[in-house]
């Protein structure tokens, strides 16, 4: 009888070590400062967006509810990776326990799956608001919105749970050094002593289906929106509608372009694209959208801009009154 190819008692290392960004060690201080600044902006901006929407009853509409959930997901996504990255770049503390590594992986990839679903929901919201304005409140009821959010979250959980299970059941009896700055799925899978191809194929297939379907529906929504907008008789109404959708399109480009590039470079460009470029793409994909989303929405959405300004003025007024 043949012996097993690995020892089951040595399947799981107690600790993984994250390399950071291979080849860019001389830039770690600059990277730590940049990431810390972007993370602080992401936390403050997204918290401010959520606070304004929660406090102002005039913003209790579907679009703003989706934006509030998006801000919460952005905080989770950035918080899952950035503090550990900064720790690696500043102090060299690269160790992460086996369970913490897989927990980080789960939250990062689940959050990205939720985010793409939210972008689709927001595109659908704009489609209904512009193409079927008279039926807006009847179509996007609180029950429908809750159902959409539950479906989006369930889809992310259904995608990540089998992936996490497959990867956790691989034997890790060799190197425990992850050539990445966080526990990215493929970087960890490469350390397995058994063939990681099934989990890698599952990840690529599910990511392609989820992102491909969402992008297709988003594109269809905006094609219909553009047809409706250019059918309006008023130029002012056309520009207003285009301005409202412009922020959404900008955020989608920020999210999907580096995300898709990161996924397929890791698969197809392993031997041609330098490793530090692959890692940087994956890192920026997780920190740039959470940083810029609140800025873009704050600038492009007049209602939020006015409410933020009003909230800041009220806070300053209260502060000066207390000081005097």
TrEMBL record:
Matches recorded under InterPro entries: GPCR_Rhodpsn, GPCR_Rhodpsn_7TM, Olfact_rcpt, OR51/52/56-like
Residue ranges occupied by any G-protein coupled receptors family 1 profile domain in the UniProt entry: 45-297
Topology class, membrane: Multi-pass membrane protein
Domain of life of the native organism: Eukaryota
GO MF term list: G protein-coupled receptor activity; olfactory receptor activity
Parts of the chain that traverse the membrane: 37-55, 64-86, 106-124, 144-167, 201-229, 241-267, 279-299
Keywords recorded for this protein, A-Z: Cell membrane, G-protein coupled receptor, Membrane, Olfaction, Receptor, Sensory transduction, Transducer, Transmembrane, Transmembrane helix
Subcellular location: Cell membrane; Membrane
Keyword Cell wall biogenesis/degradation: no
Gene Ontology CC terms, in alphabetical order: plasma membrane
PANTHER family: OLFACTORY RECEPTOR 52I1-RELATED, OLFACTORY RECEPTOR 56B1-RELATED
Family: Belongs to the G-protein coupled receptor 1 family.
Function recorded in the entry: Odorant receptor.
Protein name per Swiss-Prot or TrEMBL: Olfactory receptor
Organism: Castor canadensis (American beaver)
Name of the gene: LOC109699180
């Amino acid at each position: 009888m043949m012996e097993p190819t690995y020892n089951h008692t040595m399947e799981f290392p107690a600790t993984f070590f994250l390399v950071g960004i291979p080849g860019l060690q001389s830039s770690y201080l600059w990277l730590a400062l940049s990431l810390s600044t972007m993370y602080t902006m992401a936390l403050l901006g997204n918290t401010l967006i959520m606070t304004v929407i929660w406090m102002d009853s005039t913003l209790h509409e579907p679009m703003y509810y989706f934006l509030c959930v998006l801000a919460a997901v952005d905080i989770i996504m950035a918080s899952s990776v950035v503090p550990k990255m900064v720790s690696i770049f500043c102090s060299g503390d690269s160790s992460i326990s086996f369970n913490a590594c897989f927990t980080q992986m789960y939250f990062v990839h689940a959050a990205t799956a939720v985010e793409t679903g939210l972008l689709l929901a927001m595109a659908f919201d704009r489609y209904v608001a512009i193409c079927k304005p008279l039926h807006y409140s009847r179509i996007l009821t609180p029950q429908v919105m809750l159902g959409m959010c539950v479906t989006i979250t369930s889809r992310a959980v259904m995608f990540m749970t089998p992936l996490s299970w497959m990867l956790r059941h691989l034997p890790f009896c060799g190197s425990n050094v992850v050539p990445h700055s966080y526990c990215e799925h493929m970087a960890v899978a490469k350390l397995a002593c058994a063939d990681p191809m099934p989990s890698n194929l599952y990840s690529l297939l599910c990511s392609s289906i989820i992102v491909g379907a969402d992008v297709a529906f988003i594109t269809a929504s905006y094609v219909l929106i553009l047809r409706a907008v250019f059918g309006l008789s008023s130029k002012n109404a056309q520009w207003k509608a285009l301005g409202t959708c412009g922020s959404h399109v900008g955020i989608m480009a920020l999210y999907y372009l580096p995300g898709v590039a990161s996924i397929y470079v890791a698969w197809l460009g392993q031997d041609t694209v330098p490793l530090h470029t692959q890692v940087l793409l994956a890192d920026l994909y997780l920190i740039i959208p959470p940083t810029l989303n609140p800025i873009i929405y704050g600038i492009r959405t007049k209602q939020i801009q006015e409410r933020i300004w009003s909230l800041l003025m009220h806070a300053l007024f209260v502060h000066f009154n207390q000081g005097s």
